[in-house]
Design a protein that fits this description.
alpha+beta; YaeB-like fold; 5-stranded mixed sheet; 5 helices
């Protein structure tokens, strides 16, 4: 799958082990798991390959605190016990978001995702 990054900062976090380690406050285990998730996203043919992996805990995001998260999804960086999530948005062949985004209908066709941010779930 092709990965697109929302910003240069996100791209650096996703491509540099040093930047990932800094993001996670020096936690090497989280940084290693994060880099493995990025590699898995790149290796997947479609987003369906990610959705079917229970350990990724792929889930839809809800609109909260005034943020419109329609069409955004998250996967866990390491496990459900950790707060860190990778926020992604499926994109079509023209690198535009699906609107509306019915993941069940498009999962077999999505070959591009944008990594919007890597953040703590409850912050």
């Amino acid at each position: 799958m092709e990965l697109v990054y929302a910003s240069d900062k996100v791209k650096t976090q996703c491509t540099s082990v040093k930047a990932a380690r800094k993001l996670f406050g020096g936690n090497n285990a989280l940084a290693v798991s994060f880099m493995a998730r990025i590699t898995a996203l790149q290796a997947a043919d479609t987003i369906k390959d990610i959705i079917v992996q229970p350990s990724f805990h792929f889930h839809k995001l809800d609109n909260k605190h005034g943020r419109n998260l329609e069409g955004y999804f998250a996967i866990d960086v390491k496990s459900r016990r950790d707060q860190w999530r990778i926020i992604i948005q499926p994109l079509d062949a023209n690198k535009a978001p699906f609107s509306p985004c019915y993941i069940d209908q498009i999962a077999e066709y999505v070959r591009i995702v944008e990594i919007t941010e890597v953040s703590k779930h409850y912050e």
